[in-house]
Amino acid sequence: MKPAEGNDIHGVTMRARARALGIVGAAALALAAAPARAASSAGTLSVCAGETYVLSVTTRLTALSIAEGGTLAVPDGYSLTMTVGGVETGSVLTATLATSTTIAPGAYQGDIVLTVAEQNTATFANVTFPLRQALYVGADGVVAARSALSAVTGGRVTDADARAVRIVSTGEAFDGLYVADGGTYTLRQSRIAFTGNGRCDFIGDGTAVVGTGPGTTLVLDGVTIANKGVVRGGIVAADGCALVVKNSRIRCLNGVLPSDYVPAGGANMLVVPWRLGISGNVRATNLLGTNTTATYISSTVESETWGAFSVDSTSNSQATAVNCRIANLGEEGYGTFADGNVVERILGCEIDAGTYATIIGASNGTVYYGDSTQEAVASLNSELGMGLSDAELAALPVRGTSATSRGFGVLWHGAGTLHIDGSTVLDTRYTTFLDKAVRATITVDGSQGARITSGNGVVLQVMETDNPGSINGVYTEPTDDPVRDDSFDVTRLHDADTTASFTSISLQGDFYNARRSGQNMTLTFNGSTVEGVLSASVSRHAVDSISSAEYTELGHVTNTVRPVVNNGVLVTLTGGSAWTVTGTSYLSVLALDADSTVTAPAGSTVTMTVDDEPTALTPGQTYTGAITLAMQ
To answer: Of 206, 334, 365, 563, which is the most exposed, with the fewest CB atoms less than 10 Å away?
Structure first.
């Protein structure tokens, strides 16, 4: 029997929809494909052990009992959602990595609504997930046939927007608002609170709000999302959706992993890969797919660990945060993640990160830290369709970005670019810029007050990757010396080299290139001062091998300066820059313009040899070869 079509709820209040649901009760039970036993009394249903009771229409009850071994089911192609008193509850995944849910055995009483809805399926990594949601919106507005409307309480819902509604879930793998198929929708002044595990945050199974598909436009204004559970994310924007979040708060806390869960990747990734050096099982927001845009304005985005503001597996997408707080509430995690061909802008934001302010993943992501100037925001308002009125633009405070990390600053897990300007302040406990054997491009403009502070005294570390490459892998520290590759030129810039350019800034700290094979570090200082060691080196971890048990050791190395082998260090000083050498430094190129200097701290002098020949340091000269700078 085909489930009955949902009631027309377009433009009516939640109270009216509740009355509409009230017409479904004992009459619906009579239509259900019940097993051959005594019929339940009106408004109640008992499912005994070994029985499967099939509901074919949305049903209202006052009492429901499901014995151990009993099953409440729906026809193929449909999903079942239960609410009690307007709260989605009772749903559990049928197994740890199952994609479908069932109603858990137990006794339920109160205003019970069992919604039989058309399935909404999504596929990721060749796994298809049957999604359930309180409110499904398509091109023509709310699709009642795919919605569990009894989970939306209070306020008002129309085809264009929902205002002052509340969606609460204590079950598993249930979504709040799902907008797809080119739909346009706004959620205003509403609250979503989920407790219980999700299933896959790559497609939003268990997420509070999901927007997906080309032409889909989703706006959240004044929305609070408070979730707790494994991959029970706050917001997902995917596959060409245009998302705008304003004046909202998203907070997601870790859940409890199933006892039999074994860490996995792809569709079964319920925890952050430990090879990033962090732990956790929920990220607050995620941007995915191709041509997706997600813009957060004057909002708070918080995750306990793992990640707050995530971009994962994307192409040709843009993620923007303006005047937002982005934070890890626990001791680990990242503030932002930029994976794939994405432009990520952090303007006028406060980042409070556990382990990394930002991680740059694969495929040439570009990240900007800067100020939320009126010019910048107005330009993005036009480019990204943020929808800010002239009055909203004028009222938006101009702020600088402040990024504080209780660990590292920016990690290059894949090749990518970082730009820092305006009045940005980046303050880290450990290394500011951590490059694990990939091309990192760094541009820092301090002309408007940007500052960098490294707690461990290392500004830039280029090193071998300590990623073991697999979930059960082990990183083992090399013990042999690197072998010179005569085909690799340590005196010129290669496409895969790391480059860092600093303008009008004062820096204190060291810059190390500890690569064993084929990667140079090119440093340019323009109108800047730098005080520290700039050198080729050998780096070592505190332990010789790192498995998942030692994941917190990842990225933490000490350096011993050594002459260049395959790890050239090319230093250029221009615009009257000054380098104060605080320790022996090994370079392959040193270029000074006529106004720049290389000196030692007061009371010491600096000497230079080039290919073991003592050489005077003369402004306006370029030196190439095996260069050693030492203090006397």
So the answer is: 563
Contact 199, 131 (CB under 8 A): no
SS3 550: helix
pLDDT-based confidence at residue 628 (cuts at 50, 70, 90)? very high
**Is the C-alpha dihedral spanning 8, 11, 14, 20 positive or negative?**
negative
pTM: 0.93
DSSP structure string for 200-260:
BTTTTBT-SEEEESTT-EEEEES-EEEEESTT--SEEEETT-EEEEES-EEEEE-----TT
For the record, the structure tokens of 136 come out as 């499904």
Q: How far, in Å, CA of 206 to CA of 598, rounded? A: 58
Angle, CA of 540, 544 and 548, to the nearest 5°:
110
Phi, psi of 145 (to 5 degrees): -65, -20
- Stated as kind and residue range, the H or E segment containing 16 is helix 14-21
Task: Label residue 129 left, alpha or beta by phi (over 0 means left) and psi (-120 to 50 means alpha).
Answer: beta
583-610 residue pLDDT tens: 999 999 999 999 999 999 999 999 999 9
Break the chain into its structural domains and give their ranges.
Answer: 430-478+487-631
Residue 12 has pLDDT above 50, yes or no: no
373-385 in b/e form (b: 16+ CB < 10 A) is beebbbebbeebe
**Short-list 302, 141, 298, CA closest to 222:** 298
Q: In 10 A of CB 263, how many CB atoms?
A: 15
Question: What pLDDT is stored for residue 289 in this prediction?
Answer: 97
Half-sphere exposure for 338 (CA within 13 Å, toward CB) = 31
Predicted pLDDT of residue 35: 31
Q: Find out whether 623 and 589 touch, Cβ atoms under 8 Å.
A: yes
- Cα–Cα distance measured from residue 251 to residue 15, given in angstroms and rounded to the nearest whole number: 29
The pLDDT value given to residue 510? 99
Alpha-carbon distance values, 307 to 191, 283, 348, 377, 454 (Å): 22, 5, 19, 25, 22
pLDDT at res. 23: 28
Q: Please give the mean pLDDT across all residues of the chain.
A: 93
Residues 6+ apart with CB under 8 A from 525: 502, 507, 571, 572, 573, 574, 577, 579, 596
Q: Which of these, 262, 270, 246, 260, lies nearest to 320 by C-alpha position?
A: 246
- What backbone torsions phi and psi does residue 31 show, to the nearest 5 degrees? -85, -15
> Please, which contacts does 46-51 make with residues 24 or more away whose CB atoms are closer than 8 Å?
47/71, 47/72
What separation in angstroms does the CA of 278 have from each of 286, 334, 542? 17, 8, 18
Q: Residues 6 or more apart from 219 whose CB is under 8 A from it?
A: 185, 186, 187, 243, 244, 245, 246, 387
Specify the residue for token string 């002052």: 164
| pLDDT (tens digit per residue) in 152-182 | 999 999 999 999 999 999 999 999 999 999 9
Three-class SS state of 309: strand
